[in-house]
Amino acid sequence: MKDRYQKTSAGFDSPAIDAFAVTPDDNADLSEVVRALFIGTPGDIVLLTKLGTEVSFTGLAGGDILPVRTQRVKATGTTASNIVGLV
User: Starting from the edge strand earliest in sequence, which strands make up the sheet with 54-60, in order?
Assistant: First the structure.
């Protein structure tokens, strides 16, 4: 497969290079810290940032991209669904 960007380094403003489904959990961290979250279905999200700060985002629309380095998406308080972690 051709990848014209193979020899370039990815910066924080570069597109994600991979993605995975996120299942909210109050106790378990994601498999890796993500650079952003894609919100599939509208709602609210409670997350822990990379530095461990708990933050609530309310009124997110489906299709939103939340550009926050995130280590955990909590189940309690999260009503959005079909969340995808972008790395």
Answer: 54-60, 43-49, 70-74
Structure-derived torsion over alpha carbons of residues 34, 81, 62, 18, reported in degrees to the nearest 10: 30
Question: What is the separation of C-alpha 46 from the centre of its chain, rounded to a whole number of angstroms?
Answer: 11
| Per-residue b or e along 67-81, where b marks 16 or more CB atoms closer than 10 Å to that residue's CB | ebebebbbeebbebe
13-45 pLDDT, tens digit each: 788 999 999 999 999 999 999 999 999 999 999
By the 8 A CB rule, do 39 and 22 touch?
no
Give residues with Cβ within 8 angstroms of 40, minimum separation 6: 62, 63, 80, 81, 82, 83, 84
Task: Give the start-to-end residue ranges of the domains of the chain.
Answer: 19-86
Apex 37 CA angle, 33 and 41, nearest 5: 145
**Alpha-carbon gap, residue 57 to 79, rounded angstroms:** 10
